[in-house]
Structures are given as C-alpha cells and as structure tokens.
Amino acid sequence: MIVEIPESITHVKPELNSPTNHFIPSAVILSTKITSNAMAEPETPLTPHASDDGSYEGSDVSDEPQEPRLTPDELGVLFIDFYTFLTTLHYDKSHLKIPPPTGWPELTPESCAYFKSDYTIEVIRHLPYFDSTCIEYVHYKSKILDHTAFTQKDFEKHRNYHQDWEFWSSEGELMDPSNVVCIAVGHESFSRELWLNVKDCEIFEDFHAGDMLNAVPVEVFFENMKEQYKILKLIPGRRRITIEAEKVPERDGRIMEKEVTGQREEWGTDLDIQYVRQIYRDHGWPGSFDLETASEAIDKWLEPLGGGLGGGPRGLVWQRSPSDWDETRWT
C-alpha cells in the first residue's frame, strides 16, 4: 500500500488516499532529521573493494556516461552489513533473506513490470531483504520493503506514483528516476522514505509532509544510522514506533524509578527518554542486547501510566505499532 505523501518544496508528489491516522503525542517526536553532520564521527565505514579493472571508479571523462560507483554485488555487501547489524538490536534474524550469488531469480525486468531500468533491477536482485511479514521499523514509522514479495501491480504502483518525482545527486545532477528505487516506505507525516540511487550509490532520505534531504553515500548513510542506534538517538521498541531522540541529552548519574513515575507532564519528556535509554543499557545495549527482557521492563513501567489505547494519567505513552500496520504488507 502506498500512502499519502503531501506536496514537498523539493519535488512534486501526486496525492493518494491516506491510511487511517493514529494519534501520536507531539512530545514523542523529538527531532526531525538525521544528517551525517549531526553526530559524532562514526567508526570507519565498511567500504567494498573496487572492481579489478577499476571500471566502477570515478572517471575523469566528463562527456561520457559514468559507470556506477559500486557494482550490484558491492552494494549488496553494504546492505547485508547494515541489515545484519539491525538483527543484533530489534530485528529477528530469521526474517533476514540473503540473495543467492546470482541474485533473486524471481526479480526480472518482466516480473517487475519494467518499473525501473534493467540495471536498477539487477541491483535489487542482489540486495538482501527482511521478509514482508517483518513488523519492525527501521526509522520513524518507516519499514524496509521486500521487493521479492512484490507483485507486478505493486511495481506498477511505484512506477506510476513516483514517476514525476525529482532526485538530485550530491553533485547537483538531476537523476534519471529509472535509476532510483525505494528501499523503505513510511506512513503518516514526518515518517521516512528511503531511496537508493543505483548509479552514484547514494541514499535519499525523504520526510512525508516535509523535505527530501541531500543525497548521502550509501556507506556513510548506514554508518550514521548505526551510530544513531548505538547512542540511542534512534530508539526502537518491540511493537512500538521508533522514537527519534536527536535533541535529548544524556543524563549524568543513574535515574531512580520514583523520579520518573513522579512526573505529571505528558509522556515524552527528556527524563522519560533517558530512562528508556537506561533500561536498554541495563539489558546489554547495543552489543549484547536482550530485547525480550528489556521490552518486559518497558511494558511494566508504561502500562500503569497509560499503556492502553485510551491513555492514562500522562496521556498516551510510547506509541504501539497499530495492529493494521502490523497485519498489512507494506508496499
């Protein structure tokens, strides 16, 4: 299902019917973007080896078509590395699907309804995927797409809906839309939609009801995402909407439970988010995280505060993933 993406100042987006809206306390949305400059210097990115003949290196010839910066296999290596990292946090390892050496045989130009260039389809043939039944979020209200589960109608919807969008590379060049493919889709305002430029090997991050951020090299984007997760500026939850906490500072010293439960403000204060971080770190985040026990501790704390659908004394707390979102295959 493709949801409404309101008009943006950076590109034209046609209207679609929006899904059912779900109320979210404004306090839970704690920042609006991730950029490579908004965090500490990440560790050295995993960089694929250049092709033996150097054909995927940058060329000095400006009047000839440029070769893709990375091969489909090299892009696949970067995606596998990042997706594997996610399985150490909140994604189920059993949902991760690694492509065979020759790529996913079911993805062909014909089966994909010729929705993108042949080269783009060759790239998505070599990418890993999380199974379409996976309910986890990669970002705020954003889920990774499983192209291997797409029908021809799904591909046709993407081709028709996004055909008038404009994508600009980091070098300021207008991209051929047939060489840009959606890898993660979002629901509702300020959710994230992620796009892969297969030629320059860059990722665009788009805000529903907002702007599209500047293109970032794939390896840099993934390392930045890893760093955001590690320092809990992005906070996933079991069957909960991922929290963006870019602007929430770290707390010095240990937080006592009575200090948190004594609050009267609507849920989503800095102290609430800092307490979530503390619980996660108490349960091994990020290196040996125990999602099950951490989630039980979160649920035990939140239920008396308004963990149900109707809220409680502090309003609606950390939003649960809507059941209809979990039961629907995102496309």
Strand order of the largest sheet: 3-4-5-6-7
Our estimate of the beta-strand percent is 5-15%
Distance between the termini: 5 Å
**Distinct helical segment count:** 8
Rounded mean pLDDT score: 82
What does the main sheet amount to? 5 strands, antiparallel
**Overall domain count:** 2
Oligomer: single chain
What class, by secondary structure content?
A: alpha+beta
The backbone outline, from C-alpha atoms, is elongated
Give the % helix.
Answer: 25-40%
Sequence of secondary-structure elements:
HEHEEHEEEEHEEHHHH
**Low-confidence parts lasting 5 or more residues at pLDDT below 50?**
1-63
Structure commentary:
- With 331 residues, this protein is an alpha+beta fold.
- It folds into two domains: 66-227, no CATH class; 230-325, no CATH class.
- Helix content is 26%, strand content 11%.
- It is built from eight helices and nine strands.
- A five-stranded antiparallel beta sheet has the order 3-4-5-6-7.
- Strand 5 and strand 6 form a beta hairpin.
- Helix 1 (72-87) crosses helix 2, helix 1 (72-87) packs parallel to helix 4 (218-230) and helix 6 packs antiparallel against helix 7.
- The radius of gyration is 20 Å and the shape is elongated.
- The relative contact order is 0.17.
- Mean pLDDT is 82; it is low at 1-63.
